[in-house]
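This week, think about what follows.
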Amino acid sequence: MIKIVTDSTALIPEKVVKELGITVIPLNVNIGEDTYQDGIDMDGRKLIQEIKDNPKGAFPKTSQPSIGQFVEVYNQLTKDGDTVLSLHMTDLLSGTVHAAEQASEIADGDVKVVNTHYIDQSLGYIAVSAAKMANSGDYTRDEIVEAVGKIIDNSELCIGVSSLENLVKGGRISKATGMISKLLNLHVVFTLFPQDLKLQIKGRGKKTIKKWADQYFESIKDNDYAFIGISYTGSDELANNLKKRLEEMFPNVDVLVQYTSSIVATHTGDNAFAVMTCKKWD
């Protein structure tokens, strides 16, 4: 049997995780001397509230699971001869996938690790799709890996933030850019690519997001989607407005809105959003 492993940045409803037998390895959030496990004793809402309650306190930092954690999970899952397909978040934001790769080389069983180049609900969709194929018993691991590659190729993730402050503090963009954006109160939207976050639009105030949304919806109107997800921090007003527009455009697709993980929230800060899609593929 093929077992699917992913990390806690894959935003998958707990019910689905249990139904499909997906193993989720948590990343960590460190706040001062305290360490929390993402998705277990820390989530996105708690993280944002922690930052609000302690604006002058230690800024949260994220850390990847240890190689030892991966090895332990891999050995447990493969002890009866099963194989593992381990699907992880983009290496642009974390070394998690590299820790998994190193662990796969020293684990006792047969483990294949894939850098999906995505995160959040996009990663969740990839992991869920792989798990459904694995549980059917109709596919080899190589065939599932091939399908995962097609999902990756047809996916897109756009992320918008109301301030670059958290990305600067987390070392994801330069301090110079962050300082300028903070002074000018810039709203920005990026598209996540395997090699980088590409800036799509920037501007002052909420009109920037509306301008991006109008352009974005125009650009995708002729697409045929298998998956659409929206994640957010802070208020859900924008997320629900985007959901309404997307459901009107694509009535045959369920648009799931979720509060993001504490790992993503650490980098995006409050009042951020992401729109994630995957086109149908043959």
The chain is about 40% helix and 25% strand. The longest helix spans residues 120-136. The mean pLDDT is 91. The CA atoms of residues 10 and 216 lie 24 Å apart.
